[in-house]
């Protein structure tokens, strides 16, 4: 009897161990599935344009969201490509849409395919042609008619396809300017402006506020009596159509996002002065915790 009891006991204990191992494996598999699901939910694809303020705010949001447990990928794409990517669910959010004028064509084209936010994160934006302040005789777009040779008939532009570039083409036609708009990139345009001003040469280019260059160089906007560029622009964000359903928390945070001149200016300075834009953004986030908590409703 003793031997049989010991055999029964060994079998019983072994069955408990096996059952425990099976339960543990089942839990591990379930945890892996949940982890995988959470990781998938936390991956956010954000568009980035190679503009100073866009680099600043996209890196800022990357810092904020990754501190909240999300994995943020920044995709460098022009605005037209971002709109198509939002429509195709390849991108989650495009954080910089200028309305009512600059990006009106994209709003019209994608209004039923992309969600354009009613909320704005900057309410005092401005766009226009600028010249160095030392060009005292040129204060209006209409003055350009009398100085075509001075500028060699060229308006120095930036990214082709940008809303402001499209509006500038409309402006050339509206004012009947004998000028050619030469596209390049924002960094190239800023370099040309800076190099021209070192030698006090003439240059005219489309620019916008907020922008760090106005704190570095003495530039002035030309009057736009026909208001082709519009008046005050507001900056919105856009998302793929199902973004708010998939990420209601994030949708609320982005709707709460709002910055004043000092905040966006200081962020751009931190980012531009850092070797890595992410480090500059991280420093700004650490110094503006109260502002960010308001966006995140903490």
From TrEMBL:
Pfam families per record: OpuAC
Sample GO molecular function, one term: carnitine transmembrane transporter activity
CDD domains for the chain: PBP2_OpuAC_like
Localization (cell): Cell membrane
Keywords: Cell membrane, Membrane, Signal, Transport
GO cellular component: ATP-binding cassette (ABC) transporter complex
Residue ranges of every copy of the ABC-type glycine betaine transport system substrate-binding domain listed in the record: 44-287
InterPro entries named among the record's database cross-references: ABC_Gly_betaine_transp_sub-bd
Leader sequence segment: 1-24
GO biological process, one term: glycine betaine transport
PANTHER family: GLYCINE BETAINE/PROLINE BETAINE TRANSPORT SYSTEM PERMEASE PROTEIN PROW, GLYCINE BETAINE_PROLINE BETAINE TRANSPORT SYSTEM PERMEASE PROTEIN PROW
Name assigned to this protein: Glycine betaine ABC transporter substrate-binding protein
Native source organism of the sequence: Candidatus Pseudogracilibacillus intestinigallinarum
């Amino acid at each position: 009897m003793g031997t049989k009891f010991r055999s029964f006991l060994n079998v019983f204990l072994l069955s408990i161990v096996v059952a425990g191992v099976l339960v543990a494996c089942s839990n591990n598999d379930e945890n892996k599935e949940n982890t995988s699901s959470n990781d998938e939910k936390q991956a956010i694809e954000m568009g980035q344009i190679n503009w100073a303020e866009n680099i600043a705010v996209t890196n800022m949001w990357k810092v904020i969201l990754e501190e909240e447990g999300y994995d943020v990928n920044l995709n460098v794409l022009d605005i037209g490509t971002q709109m198509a990517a939002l429509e195709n669910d390849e991108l989650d959010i495009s954080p910089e849409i200028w309305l009512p004028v600059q990006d009106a064509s994209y709003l019209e084209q994608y209004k039923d395919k992309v969600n354009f936010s009613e909320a704005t994160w900057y309410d005092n934006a401005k766009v226009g042609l600028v010249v160095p302040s030392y060009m005292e005789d040129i204060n209006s777009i209409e003055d350009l008619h009398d100085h075509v040779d001075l500028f060699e008939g060229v308006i120095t532009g930036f990214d082709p396809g940008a809303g402001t570039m499209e509006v500038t083409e409309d402006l050339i036609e509206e004012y009947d300017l004998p000028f050619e708009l030469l596209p390049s990139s924002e960094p190239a345009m800023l370099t040309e402006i800076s190099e021209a001003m070192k030698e006090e040469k003439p240059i005219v280019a489309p620019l916008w506020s907020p922008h760090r260059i106005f704190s570095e160089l003495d530039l002035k906007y030309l009057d736009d009596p026909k208001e082709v560029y519009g008046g005050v622009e507001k900056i919105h964000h856009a998302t793929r159509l199902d973004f708010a359903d998939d990420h209601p928390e994030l949708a609320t945070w982005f709707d709460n996002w709002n910055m004043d001149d000092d905040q966006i200016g200081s962020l751009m300075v931190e980012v531009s002065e850092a070797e890595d834009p992410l480090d500059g953004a991280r420093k700004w986030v650490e110094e503006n915790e109260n502002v960010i908590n308001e966006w995140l409703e903490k």
